[in-house]
Write a structure and sequence with these properties.
Length: 424
């Protein structure tokens, strides 16, 4: 964001950011505004996602879903929030009252602090940390702290069991997620989220997802691990009523209860944004090469439309992944807890470790063969570019064509029994 503000001060206000007396005041006001905006965005996204998920679930089950509060029911989340806000905040007399009150805020803090480094477009992030990915992995650990505190402070054996199970799930799946994130880090040579995006391109064959087999496999391992970390189906066992009543939040009511689910729904953006950044090219705009962007930056003439288009591209990719996560929730049944842990420790952790080793060896060989050019976007009609395009065709286009053919074939056999206009 500082680079973005410097451009505004230099190009729009005609001042030198290094010598202008008001520069630090502009930074302070902008950071405060960014903090408020990001927190508001996280809350609004969580609320709208709760409405959208219920609409998708209804569509998949030939129901209507919430459609009364506001146009097509879009304000239903505000009615839910108001209802929870006015509900009585019950605290058990046998609980640890201070810890019981504090636990939801640890969970919300672990979710909200990730927005400090998450990009929303070209130069559109609160800060650009050199250790951005490490920071994301670190602050999300606060969620585990909040979950454990909520289970312990409730002084209920069921809440305690649910808290321990949820913490074990999150901590376990953080290991394959943390390992496989090293694949794009090795490919980009940086932990900075914007540097990882800059090392990719705007076209799909320039994304890390389709550049190497390690990136392709790493994307799906990270996707599964983040599903489990985010407590999403088929890994939502901590809150499965058939398992442990309602898990670590059993004793909570009112807004403290809502904070846990605000984090769960808002976490859809965090997990989708991390995957978009690491494997899907982030905010890179198709058709805008790295050379063009570098020339604009050297002349301090980055077009205003590029900020808007880059933000639109990033948000479109992130929302598409969020819709896939919702789709999965209403498609697959829950797994058993032993199956969930076996998947992590027996399969994902060894596979992630193997991918990191292979990625390190591959990048070392590429660096020996191509030097610094190994980290630069390859032109399409070069040898590396043609290899990337071939891998994109085999791993992206072919599965997509087969999927859509199967989908349309199924629809042609049975027809679409839901009337979109009347049911939506």
């Amino acid at each position: 964001m500082r680079e973005f503000l410097d451009e505004i001060i230099r190009d729009r206000l005609g001042q030198d950011p290094a010598s202008w007396a008001l520069t630090q005041g502009v930074y302070l006001v902008a950071m405060m505004a960014a903090g408020i905006a990001l927190t508001t965005f996280g809350a609004l996204f969580a609320g709208l996602t709760s409405w959208w998920e219920r609409r998708i679930a209804a569509r998949m089950q030939s129901r209507v879903g919430p459609n009364r509060v506001g146009p097509q029911g879009i304000l239903q989340f505000l009615a839910d929030a108001l209802k929870l806000l006015v509900k009585e905040d019950l605290i058990s007399s046998a609980s640890d009252r201070w810890l019981f009150r504090a636990a939801p805020y640890f969970v919300v803090a672990g979710f909200a602090l990730t927005f400090v480094v998450l990009p929303f477009g070209y130069h559109l992030s609160a800060t650009r940390m050199n250790v951005g990915l490490f920071y994301v992995l670190s602050v999300t650990a606060l969620v585990v702290v909040g979950i454990l505190i909520s289970g312990w402070a409730s002084n209920s054996k069921w809440a305690l069991f649910g808290g321990i199970r949820a913490a074990a799930q999150v901590v376990s799946y953080e290991i394959p997620a943390g390992l496989v994130i090293l694949v794009p880090v090795l490919m980009a040579g940086s932990l900075n989220l914007h540097d990882i995006i800059r090392a990719q391109g705007g076209w799909p064959w320039d994304w890390y997802l389709f550049q190497t087999p390690m990136g392709y496999a790493g994307f799906f391992i990270l996707f599964v691990a983040l599903l489990a970390e985010g407590n999403r189906t088929p890994f939502d066992l901590p809150e499965a009523e058939s398992e442990l009543v309602s898990g670590y939040n059993t004793e909570y009511s009112g807004m403290r209860f809502a904070y846990f689910f605000l984090t769960e729904f808002g976490n859809l953006w965090v997990m989708s944004a991390v995957m978009t950044t690491c494997f899907l090219g982030g905010w890179q705009v198709p058709g805008v090469s790295a050379e063009n962007l570098a020339r604009w930056e050297a002349l301090h003439q980055v077009p205003g439309w590029f900020y808007l288009v880059s933000a639109a591209v990033f948000c479109a990719k992130t929302l598409l992944l969020a819709n896939v996560v919702i789709w999965i929730r209403w498609t697959f049944p829950r797994v058993r807890v032993d199956q969930m842990m076996s998947l992590c420790w027996k399969y994902l952790v060894p596979a992630a470790m193997a991918l990191v080793v292979l990625a390190a060896v591959t990048e070392l060989m590429s660096f020996e063969l191509f030097g610094e050019a190994a980290r630069v976007q390859a032109p399409l009609f070069s040898l590396r570019g043609l290899i990337h395009f071939a891998f994109f065709a085999a791993g992206g286009l072919v599965p997509a064509v087969l999927f859509f053919r199967k989908t349309f074939r199924n629809i042609s056999f049975v027809g679409d029994r839901v009337r979109p206009l009347s049911n939506w």
